[in-house]
Design a protein that fits this description.
Blueprint: E1 4-8, H1 11-22, E2 30-35, H2 41-51, E3 66-69, E4 75-79, H3 92-96, E5 101-105, E6 118-125, E7 131-138, H4 140-149
Parallel strand pairs: 2-5, 2-6, 4-5
Antiparallel strand pairs: 1-7, 3-4, 6-7
Helix pairs in contact: 1-2
Length: 150
């Protein structure tokens, strides 16, 4: 499958992109979010939340692993950076198959538990301070989603 790219020159661009994506998301969609510290993963997730009509403040669930927010669709925001065992049963599949949208920060750490079909979003911090958002769809649903948003 192809990869898609968007250049974000400022945090507002990242949020606007994520808001547009949120408008296309459906229950059961999974986004695997990767990027270095400070690359904009939480900013991206805040934009998704706004696009889903969530009014609560969204922040990284680093110490709680999963935070849930209610909007047009529920948002399940996971940060698995501190998960020590990639095969630890934390009930992730219930979220992946649930009635909301799941965003997993540091998703590669639980790769074996992720669904086969998902949207991988990688955020890269470029030298000039811009963010490069690279999407890699895994499955036809996500391929069509990327064609619509990029």
């Amino acid at each position: 499958m192809a990869t898609y790219q968007y250049i974000s020159k400022q945090p507002e661009d990242t949020m606007d992109f994520a808001k547009r994506l949120a408008g296309l998301l459906q229950a059961g969609d999974v986004i695997a979010l990767e990027g270095d510290l400070g690359a904009g993963k939480t900013t991206f997730t805040k934009g998704l939340a706004e696009g889903l009509g969530i009014t609560r403040n969204v922040n990284s669930p680093t110490f709680t692993i999963i935070k849930e927010y209610q909007g047009r669709l529920p948002l399940y925001h996971m940060d698995v950076y501190r998960v020590e065992d990639a095969f630890e049963d934390l009930g992730f599949e219930e979220y992946f198959e649930g009635n909301g949208v799941t965003v997993v920060e540091w998703a590669h750490l639980i790769e074996a538990q992720l669904p086969e079909e998902l949207l991988l979003i990688q955020l890269f911090l470029d030298e000039n301070g811009a963010r490069r958002i690279v999407a890699e769809p895994k499955g036809n649903r996500y391929e069509e989603l990327c064609k619509e948003i990029f």
